[in-house]
Every structure is written in C-alpha cells, then in structure tokens.
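TEACHING EXERCISE
Course module: macromolecular assemblies
Task: Read the component lines below, then compare them to the predicted structure of the full complex.
Student: A.B.
Group: 4
Components provided:
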Amino acid sequence: SQQGEEDPQALSIQEGENATMNCSYKTSINNLQWYRQNSGRGLVHLILIRSNEREKHSGRLRVTLDTSKKSSSLLITASRAADTASYFCATDPKGGSEKLVFGKGTKLTVNP
Amino acid sequence: DGGITQSPKYLFRKEGQNVTLSCEQNLNHDAMYWYRQDPGQGLRLIYYSQIVNDFQKGDIAEGYSVSREKKESFPLTVTSAQKNPTAFYLCASSIPQNWAYGYTFGSGTRLTVV
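Instructor-supplied answer key:
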C-alpha cells in the first residue's frame, strides 16, 4: 500500500534556486524519512524526522513535519546540478513492524 | 567497506523461467527487504525478513519467493507465476529499532523478460 504521496511529481529549477518537495501520508507514524535516488541506482537515506519533531536540518536540507496535517516538506537550498535525482518520502507507520512505506517520488532537475 | 551488494545488475528472463536475484550485506543488519520499482509507481514491498530463518510477505508477494538461511544473504526468486516481472528490484537492510541511518539500499537489479 502506498502511504506517502509526493508533490510535485516533477520539478525543474535553475542552479542556485531552492527546491521544495512535499509529502502527504494517511496514517499515524513513528517517523518520516527522505531518500534520494540517482537514475538507475539504489536509494540513499538523507534525513529522518520523528513524529514529535517539527523541523530538522542537515547541511542544505531542511525537513518539516506537520502531524496534524499528515504532511512533510523537504527543502534543498542553493541547489546544484548534482542534486538532480528523484526524492522519496518514506513513513514508518505506527504498528507497522518497522516496514517503511514509500511514496512515488518527486523527480528534481537542476539546470546549470 | 560495509555495504549491500546486488547481482547481477542486469538480468534477462525467458517466458516460463525462474530466476534468482542475489542480495548480500556485510553490515551485520538483522532486517532485509525486497522492493520492486516500476516507473511512476514508487517502491512496493515484496518480502521482508527481520531475523534469520524467518520472512514475511509484503504487499506484492505473489509470484516471488525468498529464503533467509544466513544473516548476510536474502535471495529473491522470481518464478514463472509472476506474469509481469519486468522491473527494477531493490534490496535493502536495516537495524530494527535503530533508525539513525534508515535503510541501506543496494544498487538494484534490472530484470527484463525477453
């Protein structure tokens, strides 16, 4: 079952601009994670935010979580061409035996 | 270096043939997972295992089988019962109840029916 839904499906920006991706989910969660996937490769874990946290930073990444709206956002600041990839949110549902449920992803293109 | 290795990178299957995808990790992770990725559909869970000699069906287990005889290895067999096997298959591992690093993924196997 697909829990997370990312928005937009695709995003194209210029180098140096900020990129914002959103994720909505349906059930209560223990945590929400963001992953990155370069074309034809495996996913790489970027950042995790727990259900009792509202905001988290890691380098150029900023993640917010609003459990009342069941939504999260990932902001990449000062984007670079190397940030071009697909980004997925994944939720750890309460009572879900620690099986992550992934969304369909946002494909980000950063033009040089 | 610790990591998770999937092989082969590309695999071609004829109609009616069973094929096995390899997944090996040296991270000492207890939990392992198999996901299928189709264009525009994200990742869907096929099977997962949280301990040796035990595994559970995911959302789309029909036509697939797994084994977990060793902690390091979690091979996936795509059987002839899987009617639409062409997809990108991803293996992952994790430490249960320790989300510090999330899932670690392999580089994937692209399976094509010919």
